[in-house]
Design brief:
heterodimer; A: 336 residues; mainly alpha; 69% helix; globular; B: 173 residues; Four Helix Bundle (Hemerythrin (Met), subunit A); oxidoreductase (chain A); transmembrane helix (chain A); NADH-quinone oxidoreductase subunit H (chain A); quinone binding (chain A); translocase (chain A)
Chain lengths: 336, 173
Amino acid sequence: MVEDLLHSQPGILNFGIFFLLATVLLLVILGFVTYAILAERKVMGFMQLRQGPNQVGGRWGLLQTVADVLKLLLKEDTIPKLADKPLFIIAPVIAFAPSFIVIAAIPFTDKLQFADLNIGLLYYIAISGLTTIGMVTGGWASNNKYALLGGMRAAAQMISYEIPLVMSVLGVILLTGSLNLNDIVAAQENVWYILLQPVAFIVFIIASVAELNRVPFDLPESENELVAGFHVEYSGFRWAFFMLAEYVYMFAMASLTTVLFLGGWLPLFSFLDFIPGAVWFALKFMFVVFLLIWFRSTFPRIRADKLMEFAWKILLPIALANIFLTAIIKEIFKLL
Amino acid sequence: MTLSGEFFAFISLALVAVVGGVLLLNLTKVVHMVLALVFTFVSIAGIFILLSAEFLAAVQILIYSGAITIIMLFGIMLTRHDDTKEPKTGLLRKLLLFLGILGFAFAFYIGIYNLDFGEVSTTLHENNTEQIGIALYSKYIIPFELTSVLLLAALVGAIVLSKNDQEKEAKKE
């Protein structure tokens, strides 16, 4: 359906349809973010032997996040007097917009996808890098030393961890022979890449947690060193935008992990294929999100000086060795 | 000329690119300039997509988003960013500059107006990632390898420079 729309004549109707689709997607993602935050608080609560939110919206606290968002909307929007005003205002937009743009390329099932790009994987990695600029800008514009330190850390961390992330994915690309996310899922018909590329999967998960700025790699916003990192001075809805960007990336990264290593919408065994693809995707997706929350409540934060060493001296060589090995094995199988 | 979606997309992207470039020259604060540069680069990537060069577009954003962040950090750390004074330039220099710009624009106009690529193959946009890969690793393998050696030399140079600093500081302490 989207393919036909893309090739049709432009007009108000077309624009309206695209606008409507984007709005629906945004609402779905907002719904996800609402319940992802609740799930995070609940799961972390149970892991730390406490209840988590259980007052607003029944025993499970189902309306807790909605109440939080309402509170954020009503909060006073403060801009520090000495802040760089235009940059301060535009920074949350720059941080959030790419997170929403990347979702366009992710195939949820064989039919539910917005853009079938030939370079889907590269597109995701390229666009997601833009968020760093928003973070550094926000940190700089706040005119606050903690914010600036947070922004600097964000830049250093995200640029360093982008490299092992790309390198680990290269193994998958080598085996598939394509950057198209649909082709990558189709190539996992018989066996998922998590079994063929276990090393790449581990490197990818570590680097993706670092890209998401989550514990144990949450140095840009580590609250007990930098108050709150690059968004110290932000309040109300502008702050909510940074938070939103973070959780939308969690959505996107969990989807990407599912697509790359867990077989996307394909069923676990072929006799289970009466269950629709969307259900399979949702199950795997939720598993990855749970994994991310699990990491958050069980790992201590990594030290700032170890962070860079870990990326460059451990993750990168492992990822390179994995590429080398994959290439050799692929050639050997070709000869047989 | 028909009003197609492509036309609208091109005009808006080109506008953003040009405005970004002009702002880059006219703004006075370093971080503002760098941000203007972001808009220029991203909209140029958009123009690549309009030309069906999607691989180039993705690489453009991939390389420059990291590079711009680094430029921004350099701008913050290595310049006097609260200095907004404009350097004074004489009238003669401005006039010469204007003539130079006119000459450049004229030369470009002539060059582009009569440009003829000859026979252009029509399949370049299909699987362009694969085509670029094949061209790089077969036809242009030596320039490609030379570039990588150059980059490696720069990398080693950076490591050597920063290593020296550390040793000196250790001696001081």
